[in-house]
Design a protein that fits this description.
It is built from four helices and five strands; from the N terminus they run H-H-H-E-E-E-E-E-H. By secondary structure, the protein is of the alpha+beta class.
Length: 119
């Protein structure tokens, strides 16, 4: 998969029409999608990570990345803030969560890539 195909997926995501019907759901904005592309580009170019899931949700873009039995879940919100957590899929345990500041994913990536529980 190339980065261009990831960017295309992000630019083309939409929330389901039935979510929009009552007017209470706000889809991801263009600014949110652009920030998501920046996040994905950084993770792709610096860590060779490709998102497994790219989805629109209420006021955000939802991403998942997987390394072994660990999964990093990220939300890029319409205000362009970023939240991330890493969980152990076998133990069903959250190992780390944080608000990402200045596109610094170092701690999340360390936990995602660490095999031992002492993260």
């Amino acid at each position: 998969m190339t980065f261009d195909s990831i960017a295309t997926r992000i630019n083309n995501i939409k929330v389901p029409e039935h979510w929009l019907a009552d007017g209470s759901v706000v889809p991801p904005t263009e600014e949110c999608k652009e920030k998501t592309i920046q996040v994905c580009r950084k993770l792709f170019e610096e860590n060779e990570l490709i998102p497994k899931t790219v989805a629109a949700s209420c006021e955000c873009v939802f991403l998942t990345y997987r390394v072994g039995d660990r999964k990093m879940i990220m939300e890029v919100l319409n205000n362009c803030s970023i939240g991330a957590l890493v969980n152990d899929e076998i133990e069903k345990e959250i190992l780390w969560n944080e608000d990402i500041v200045d596109m610094n994913f170092e701690k999340c990536l360390n936990v995602l890539n660490t095999r031992d529980k002492e993260s």
